[in-house]
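User: I'm putting together notes for a lab meeting next week and I want to include a structural view of one of the chains we've been expressing. I don't have a solved structure, so I'd like a prediction I can at least talk through. The sequence is below, exactly as it appears in our construct file.
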Amino acid sequence: MYDLSSVIVHHGGAGGGHYTAYCKNPASKEWYEFDDQYVTLVPEATVTEAEPYVLFYSKKSSNVEIAREEVLQLDKETEPSFMKFYVSVEWL
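Assistant: Thanks for the context. Below is the predicted structure for the 92-residue chain, given as structure tokens.
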């Protein structure tokens, strides 16, 4: 099972145009439009009515959901600066 996580949309014709992206925030479940330097909250209907060029999916996994909830809980329990500058021991 997979969840749609983002799409790329091409506006224009074969000779030229512009690309935008719609991405879903996994924590809030809200969709955002990315258009150059602008990021805007959009209703889900905007995404479902779009004609995507590329679609991205995230695999559903109970392990991933559990890990995501643990990170979100850690973020709520700690000072904001801790999560902002956290570096994994494996990365070091």
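A couple of points you could mention at the meeting. The chain has a mean pLDDT of 82. The radius of gyration is 17 Å.

User: Perfect, that's what I needed.
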